[in-house]
Amino acid sequence: MVRLKPDRLIKSSTFRLALVYMLLFSASAVLLLGFIYWSTAGYMARQTDATIEAEITGLADRYRLTSLDGLVRSINERLQRNPQGSFVYLLTDTSFRPVVGNLDRWPHIPAGEDGWLSFQLEQASLGGEAVHRARARTFVLRGGFHLLVGRDMHELTETRQLIVRTLGWGFGITVLLGVAGGVMMSRSTVRRIEAINQTSREIIQGDLSRRIPSEGSGDDFDQLTDNLNSMLDQIQMLMDGVRHVSDNIAHDLRTPLTRLRNRLEAINVQTNPDRTDIEDAISEADSLLSTFNALLRIARIEAGHRTAGFEVLSLSQLVRDVVELYEPLAHERQQIFTASIEEDLKISGDRDLLFQAIANVVDNAIKYTPEQGQVEMTLTRGDSRARVVVRDSGPGIPESERNRVFERFVRLETSRNAPGNGLGLSLVAAVVRIHKADIALSGEAGLEVTLSFPLAS
Length: 457
Description:
This protein is an alpha+beta fold. It contains eight helices and twelve strands. The protein has helices at 6-10, 13-81, 154-204, 220-269, 275-302, 315-332, 351-368, 424-434; strands at 87-92, 98-101, 116-122, 131-140, 146-152, 311-314, 336-341, 346-349, 374-382, 385-392, 438-442, 447-454. It is rod-shaped and about 155 Å long.
């Protein structure tokens, strides 16, 4: 279980990204909530003004129809009908002395050019004790009378404050949830990244068997984990291969080097060196050079240095050339060599590498097939691929060993006294990989090697 320190979490790029996202989201929330407040409060203010306008229109109509007495009766009726209401009425004479209404005096604040004014309303005049803000509109009637119609804004103010408090709490909860979500997301991400780092540190310390744990969710991290584990498997396989090759090189080259040293030492003490000894020493040196050259060729092929020389070539003609080269050798060993080649099969590749790979397969077939045995070679087309098949009646390769024979210096003859260096099929496998082809071993009686190349378009 990976334990995360708070400072490790805060310094993580995931937390910083979550924080930036939270700030952007919070700014968006502020804009949205501000728009909601502006729309709601503005709508309520406009509704209040419209209500006052409608009340003024009704009183003005009454005044035109019934003159001043009718206006007074109408105001008194409204006050008696709703004595604790939020509407404010005041009718004064020319000297601003109250005639009727629920205000005891005319506001000392002058009205604006549009006739609207806002003033502090002492609630005592309406039966209370608090001081509220009121909004009203004034008119001058015929005869110099002044009319004020307004409304107590206390309810609107409380509603606005309620909206502000609600939006404030909403913003606070949004920020809190954003921080909590950012922390949770960061903890999950940092935990999985730390698992990768921990495994990497253990591998660096020498434990190549360690692998990154996967949660099995199939998400991006699991895909990354699977790819990294596959890469680690490949690295471990290559490291094991290097150790295996190193051991085999030491084992395979120790004997010929020892023989070469003994022969050179024997030649050195001879007064008249025997030419046969010199030729044997040269032959041992050539064998060693051949082994090293094969290793170099495989390394260059696997590094992909030969892909620049690829060209479209006739695989049919190339296979025919291999047959012409090895047919006399098979006849010399009293083997039956048959070939069936389909014409006009073209592939893209390096002719020299392909020739060497196919020749190695045929050479192995002839080498391990006894006298009077059969070696058969075919080239056919199938599923947009060209298939080269080499069959022999030799001892074959056990199914459990068929994957190992492509490794360097692997030889089924455990005494390692038979000719060869165990690099032939390794070179074939390298050539197959660089040409994006396939190689398969099969057969129960004898061995069947199938090389499958993609046809050139």
